[in-house]
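Working notes for the structural subgroup meeting. M.R. asked for a predicted model of this chain before we commit to crystallization trials. I am recording the input and output together here so anyone reviewing the notebook later can reproduce the run.

Input as submitted:
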Amino acid sequence: MSYITALNTANPPFTISQEQSADFSAHFMGKTKDEKRKIRILQRATGIKNRYTVLEDYTKKNGFDFYPNTEDLEPFPTTAERMKVYEKWATKLGLEAAKPIIEGRENEITHLITVSCTGMFAPGIDIELLENLGLNSSVQRTAINFMGCYASFNALKVANAFCLASDAKVLIVGVELCTLHFQKQADDDNLLANSIFADGAAAVLVESKPQKGKTNLLLKNFYCDLVPKGKRDMAWYIRDTGFEMRLSSYVADILGEEINQILDKLMKGLEVDKNSDTISQWAVHPGGKKILDTLAKKLSMDKSKLDVPFKIWEEYGNMSSVTVLFVLKELLHNKAAYQLKNNQLIPSLAFGPGLTVESALFEVVEQ
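Returned structure, recorded in token form:
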């Protein structure tokens, strides 16, 4: 068996309101008054209040540090220039998330798993974290890259496998700097991506035994499936001017058609009904307001069971793979408010390119 025994998150110092985001996008993406108006309406409709970014430029009207101070942002930053910023910030945010949960236990860590789909370099963030955290050089390192918003589930599954095989203590560190990949072409994919994505980091400690005096999460079960009809509706490509997202508004509809079957498979054999009273909250990756609304409707769910995903969406936006870990942290740190008790079940979901649906079932374990 394996347990999440500690979890922490971190964000860069620059906060961008959705109004500031709309101003930036409308100025550089909207060529006509109608296009500018469309951008502002779209950004307001997301329901996001604030997002975090490593680029202070998004909070300004001029005097940029990263983007050129030209009317059309030309020469538009290359992928190489964006990756230099990633190299600067990724380790810093990863350390901020990880240090508090392993302090005093550095020598106990046996495995390190890093997660990111918004940048990479080698020697990478895994080695930078190992050295800066003071971990043993013999720690086994695994990198999970470019899998998208569901990648934290893959990291948890790998950590679970390590713990089942031995008395492992696995540190997972995810860092996503989505705002590095702003694209100025005013097509629907870019308009949506520029409206919702944000930056953040999270760290998780997974162990083969629960920690006494703490609230732990037992990794009870996992299930993964593909929805082939959505393959073209969510995708992620590396191009000359950063990474380009394809994110269709139809994703929510596609998920709505398949979600009942997927959850039935996840909970099969666990003798748990998805509407059971033993489930007070769902840890769903908030990939979009429409996705959350659709899930609540399709599952005939009391919308209050998605309070935390909606809260994270409003306060942080979509931080790709680490977002679901922000949801879990909020649940654990405010467990009384969300009626979490010993043996409470928490179903969790995330979606990404493929169209991939990853799911997990956690159980609250008080020691």
